Amino acid sequence: MRTLRHSSKSLASLLPRSIHIPKHFSSSPASTLPPPDDPNTADEPPAPSPVGATDTDGSAHPPKGLVDAFSITSSKRVIDFLLRKQRQPKEALEFFNRSQMQAAGGSGFPDVDPFCIMLHILVRAGKLMNTRELMERSIRRGLIPRSSVVVDRLVETAKRCDSDPSTFDHVLGCYARTGRIDVALEAFQRMVENGIVPDVESRNLLLTSMLRSGSFGKAREVFEVMRAKGMPFDCSTLDIMMHVCINGGDPKAAEVYFRELVDGGRLKPDALVYSTLIESLCRQPDAKGACELLSQMKSVGMVPSAFVYNLVIGACVKQGNLAEASKLRDEMLGSGLPMNLVVATSLLKGYCVEGDLDSALDLLSSVLEQGIEPNNVTYCVLIEGCYRNGNAEKAYELYCQMKERGMVPNVFTVNSVIKCLLKANKWKEAFDLFDEAVGSGVPNVFTYNILMKWLGRVGRMKEVCRLWAKMEEMGVEPNVFTYNQLLFGHCVRGDLESAANLYTQMSQRGKTPNVVTYTTLIQGYMNKNDFDQAYDVLNTMQNMGISCNDYTYNTVINGLCKAGRMTEAKDMLNNFMEQGFIPNSMTYNSMVDGFVKKGMMNLAVSAYHEMLSYGISPSVITYTSFIVGYCKSNCTDLALKFLNEIRRKGLQLDIPMYSVLISSLCKEGKMEAAVDLFNDIYKVGLKPNCIIFNNLITGYKFVNSMEAAFELHRRMVTEGIPCDKAIYTNLIDGSLKVGITAFALELYSEMIEQCHIPDEITFTAMVYGLCNNGDIEGAHKILDEMDKIDERPSVNIYNKLISEYFRKGNLEEAFRLHDEMLDRGLVPNDTTYDILVGQKLQRNISTALTQNI
Predict the structure, then answer these.
(1) Segment among 4-8, 335-339, 399-403, 711-715 with least mean pLDDT
(2) 168: number of CA atoms within 13 Å, CB side?
(3) CB 384 within 8 Å of CB 393
(4) Distance CA 839, CA 806 (A)
(5) Are 311 and 290 in contact (CB under 8 A)?
């Protein structure tokens, strides 16, 4: 444990170099008490003031030329009167106040002795409130000299009147209460120099005044001087000094003071001292230490307050010790203290952080049953918990519950609910809530940023622009993050002209672009293969003194690799490394992927070994690139070797990797191996997605094993995995190929009901399948289905129908469809002409045969 070094500073070093002294106090003829006047006139007030000016309250002021002489005489007579009225403090005070206002034109006596004698009289008579009023008024109006002079004269005047030593305590206390720290310190120093030790209460007031003014360092220095002088302390002193340490940002020093004064036996702490130290420990946070001190507090018979329990429970939750927090809650309730909202909110936060949303909601129900009214903070904690746990419905329900209870959700709550709804893809509800909040003026720039980020991510740039306009309309000032979001959206759309304009506007409006701004622009230009412009932005950023971060370097490398400019990417990487960039997994993943896509598998392997030489561990993304490359090269066996390497290293497999492998195996007709991998997905705790199911269904379709494909479809329904358009198309195509027309039509109807709009591939599969199954009329009706959704039939669809009508001998309909195809602006292809020529040739042959017969 560290100790506090005792300060060697004197009190004089803590005082200001100079303090202004009013002119009439700088040198006084009456530096000592004058002898008393004639006893015969002792009970009479001084003679009336000479003729002169009159103040608004009727008190006379002497002419200017008579002020000094008169004031000296007046001061002497006032002192004489006060000395004779020591036993009548009320009369003495009334006379003093009246005389003080008359003396020197209302600026007070030329010396401070009358004032000091009056203080002695009041304190000795127990008129402490009058003492305080007189002191504070005189200090406020500047009627007395600097505090060191007052202390000196109090010492001298105490020899001539009946006095009480506590006068000095009250004087120091009054100086401290005024908040004039330097003046109070000067008084304290002069008292010490005169051998006077103020009582602990007045010294506590001095330390408190420094605490309240934020003079934490000075308070600690003064305290060390007091300790060096051997002045006694009480628990209030210790409590003040611990608060000095806590508020001064050094909570550990509070514990040091406690240990030095308590463990040394100098003080026996009270409940307040324990509470303050517990508060200090909780702020650090040191929940364990706070719990130990709480136990110590209870062991000496003290009963902790609800405030103390609130602190310790909050600290336990903050440090993740929810079990201890719950135990303390039960202990608090067992001691007779009721549950309160602070404890409940702390525990709610703890449950939410641990992901135990059910326990948090149960606690809320219990709190409501006990009549405790939640506040905005309580609901905000719960809604944030819902966001972390992905429960958008409950978040919105809590939001509505808040409003029903008469609360006005603040911006933090609104933002949390919006984030939660967007995370669950409930964008309509999120924007409805936003519109409602706009009506109340709640949203801030962060609200707009949340929505713009989501809209940009899903590519809804028109709505991003509308939201930007709305923000400006509402007077909400965009920040750099807002600009970056809009910039990102423009770049994703490939609208680099708008992105460049926004960048210019950003600077014009006083918003300094940051590394994210420039990196976003670089990525946008690279995605458009405009590398010269990308390099210009990079140079501009560096000329502006903005350093590239890892993301910037990796963006450039990745952009070059995606464009297949691998030699340039390698050179740029070497250049960046000379600038101090240390390549990471993302860097080499880009290099490996770039070489793989170029078919340079040997160079990809070289990059992989270079990665290992730098001590960078390959990730699942690295291995996935190799697997993709080998699968495209029809080297599935090599791809499976990488899969085994991943398992050997204990890396977490992901769905994209499984998808690539299963797709490759299905294309090669290795359905058994594909199914083994499919089953492995469940074993490693993952859940297959639509793409994987579609790969397997496609594989079964190619090997004419549609029953197995149908079984997969049923499994998807059972596991709650929705089918997409590609799966429906494959199932329909497969069903028609094996002659199950009725089921194919059922699947088509189901597809429509699930709001999946058929595309050209779907319609082509149905037309070909129905025609091949002899249902040419059903195939023809597909044209009507396409018209309903404004989908123009392809040439291939018309070719199939024309061919079938020719085959059926319906030449009229065949030629009508040919004319219709031309009317739709479709250009016949070679297949079309082959059909027409073939049918014409066949007709000629038939005619010749008929004539010969």
Answers:
(1) 4-8
(2) 26
(3) no
(4) 7
(5) yes
How many whole angstroms separate alpha carbon 409 and alpha carbon 377?
A: 10
Q: Could you tell me which residues are beta bridge partners of residue 53?
A: 61
Task: Find tokens 């009320």 and name the residue.
Answer: 90
Question: Distance (Å, rounded) from C-alpha 726 to C-alpha 756?
Answer: 10
57 three-state secondary structure: coil
The 3-state DSSP class for residue 60 equals strand
Residue closest to 345 by CA, chosen among 386, 387, 373, 305:
373
Type of residue at 161: C
State the burial class of residue 850 (Cβ atoms within 10 Å of its Cβ: 0-12, 13-18, 19+): exposed
Rg of the Cα trace of the chain? 45
Beta carbons of 312 and 282 less than 8 angstroms apart: yes
**Please, is 296 exposed, middle or buried when counting C-beta atoms within 10 Å of its C-beta (0-12, 13-18, 19+)?**
middle
243-272: per-residue pLDDT in tens? 999 999 898 899 899 988 887 777 889 999
Cα–Cα distance for residue pair 364/348, rounded to 1 Å: 8
Cβ-based neighbour number of residue 608 at 10 Å: 19
- The residue with tokens 């509800």 is 429
114 neighbors 100 (Cβ within 8 angstroms): yes
DSSP assignment letter at 338: P
Q: Are 334 and 305 in contact (CB under 8 A)?
A: no
For residues 308-323, average pLDDT = 92
Closest CA to 732 of 776, 779, 688, 687: 779
Question: How far are the Cα atoms of 10, 288, 340, 388 from residue 295, in angstroms, in the given order?
Answer: 40, 11, 21, 35
Q: Give the Cα-Cα-Cα angle 636, 637, 639 (nearest 5 degrees).
A: 60
Q: Is 2 left (phi over 0), alpha (psi -120 to 50) or beta?
A: beta
- Could you tell me which residues come within 8 angstroms of residue 85 by beta carbon, excluding any fewer than 6 positions away? 91, 92, 95, 121
The closest of 24, 161, 44, 159 to 95, measured between CA atoms, is 44
Q: How many residues does the chain have?
A: 853
Query: Residue 107 has which token pair?
Result: 């600026």
Residue of 482, 473, 423, 407 lying closest to 449 (CA atoms): 482
Cα–Cα distances in Å, from 255 out to 234, 243, 312? 16, 11, 16
Q: What is the DSSP letter of 260?
A: I
Could you tell me which of 110, 89, 108 has the C-alpha nearest to residue 28? 110
The sign one gets for the Cα dihedral 486, 487, 493, 496 is positive
**Please, are residues 502 and 488 in contact by the beta-carbon 8 Å criterion?**
no
For 447-482, what is each residue's pLDDT tens digit?
999 999 888 777 787 888 888 889 888 999 999 999
DSSP 73-137: HHHHHHHHHHHHTTT-HHHHHHHHHHHHHHGGGGT--SSSHHHHHHHHHHHHTT-HHHHHHHHHH
Give residue 678's identity as a one-letter amino acid code.
F
Tokens standing for residue 624:
């996935």
Q: CA 400, CA 761: separation in Å to the nearest integer?
A: 46
Strand pairing partners for 54?
60
| Strand, helix or coil for residue 708 | helix
Separation between Cα atoms, residue 843 and residue 821, nearest integer Å: 23
Kind and range of the H or E run holding 118:
helix 113-124
Q: Which amino acid is at 522?
A: I
CA-nearest of 656, 651, 658 to 681 is 658
Can you tell me the distance from the alpha carbon of 373 to that of 376, in angstroms, rounded to the nearest whole number? Answer: 10
Helices and strands per DSSP (H, E), number in the chain: 45, 2
pLDDT at residue 104, rounded to an integer: 52
- CA pair distance 68, 110, nearest whole angstrom: 8
To the nearest 10 degrees (0 to 180), the angle between helices 287-299 and 271-283 is 170
Query: Which tens digit of pLDDT belongs to each residue from 712-740?
Result: 999 988 888 888 899 999 999 999 999 99
- Please report, in angstroms and rounded to a whole number, the separation of the first and last CA atoms in the chain: 122
